[in-house]
From TrEMBL:
InterPro entries, per database record: Acyl-CoA_Oxase/DH_mid-dom_sf, AcylCoA_DH/oxidase_NM_dom_sf
Gene Ontology terms for molecular function: oxidoreductase activity, acting on the CH-CH group of donors
Record organism: Acinetobacter puyangensis
Protein name: Acyl-CoA dehydrogenase
Length: 328
């Protein structure tokens, strides 16, 4: 994976965040797709390290590449192997006044929240069938019956992800798996942990700015902030290791309880680091450092892929089913 790291180093050194450079860099990273370990393969933690390192460089690249890898993992889990060098994305958000409808191999309607919609070769898309069950399908993006609308995206954070609504009009699709299988397979939650690895990678990179500042010019207040950040990240990192070990040991289990806690802990860590680093360093890195500024703008948007109170409620429900939730 040395060349993978070289690509990231070159991207960061150039500090060119144009859409063209982002998409070209993504295409180079995709060539390494087959070498990235699958969740539950015995190298789950290594997979998350790759995602975290990518996120520490740029969260748009991390969002795109994580979605691509997730699509490949889903298809692999469902016994549907594809060319890993084609660019994929997973689009599973639902809702809106005109949801996707399926009839005899064709779809119509609007799919919201489709990141990299204009870049990918294939979308792995969900829709609700006539029984209101979630069905997964492959959408070839080279069809003239697909239209894009990105006018609703007003956030500065994650703006470069080119997230759009896609409108389908009698567009051919290919169903994959059985109804509800996308949601009920073990890998659904394994993939959700991969998203948290991206949050964590960006969080660590922001903390690195504080650590570097303490090395260059320390004071008691900066050291106090660094202590809080270090404590938070150490606990979170150890939990990543624990959950990865559990997934590798029992790959056929979904580990929903542990992964929901992992995501909640990672979100909390991100919020603590954003606050503590900002208080310690002031406005300067937000205004004068391109990497810091982008991560600080992107991360609050990306972690909203968490479902906050709804996730905590579900953790509480699952805790009631555990026989030894907190005991040593």
């Amino acid at each position: 994976m040395t060349n993978f790291k070289t690509i990231l180093m070159k991207f960061e050194q150039e500090q060119c965040f144009s859409p063209l450079n982002l998409s070209n860099t993504l295409k180079k990273l995709v060539l390494f797709s087959a070498k990235i370990p699958q969740p539950g393969s015995g190298q789950t933690y290594q997979r998350w390290q790759i995602l975290a390192n990518l996120a520490a460089t740029d969260l748009t690249l991390a969002k795109w590449f994580e979605s691509h890898l997730d699509a490949l993992s889903i298809l692999h889990e469902l016994g549907h192997e594809v060319d890993p060098h084609k660019l994929w994305a997973v689009w599973a958000a639902e809702g809106g006044p005109n949801p996707i409808r399926y009839h005899d191999g064709y779809c119509a309607g609007i799919k919201p929240w489709c990141s990299a919609a204009a870049l990918v070769d294939y979308g792995l898309m969900t829709y609700r069938d006539q029984n209101d069950q979630s069905q997964l399908c492959i959408l070839d993006m080279q069809q003239s019956t697909i239209n894009f609308n990105d006018e609703d995206w007003h956030a500065i954070g994650m703006q470069a992800t080119q997230t759009a609504k896609i409108s389908l009009q009698h567009t051919a699709v290919k169903n994959v798996g059985e109804p509800q299988q996308y949601l009920t397979r073990a890998g659904f939650w394994h993939g959700a942990a991969g998203v948290a690895a991206c949050w964590y990678g960006a969080t660590v990179r922001l903390a690195d700015f504080l650590q570097q500042a303490c090395q260059e010019k320390s004071n008691p207040f900066r050291m106090m902030y660094l202590g809080k950040v270090s404590q938070t990240l150490a606990v979170t990192r150890q939990y990543f290791k624990d959950v990865a070990q559990q997934i590798d040991q029992f790959p056929d289990e979904n580990h929903e309880f542990k992964i929901r806690i992992l995501r909640a802990q990672t979100e909390l860590a991100a919020l603590i680091v954003l606050e503590q680093v900002g208080q310690a360093l002031g406005a300067k890195p937000y205004c004068e450092n391109a990497i810091f500024a982008r991560l600080a703008a992107d991360l609050p948007v990306f972690i909203r892929q968490s479902h906050a109170a709804f996730d905590l409620e579900r953790i509480g429900q699952l805790a009631l089913e555990e026989t030894s939730t907190w005991t040593l």
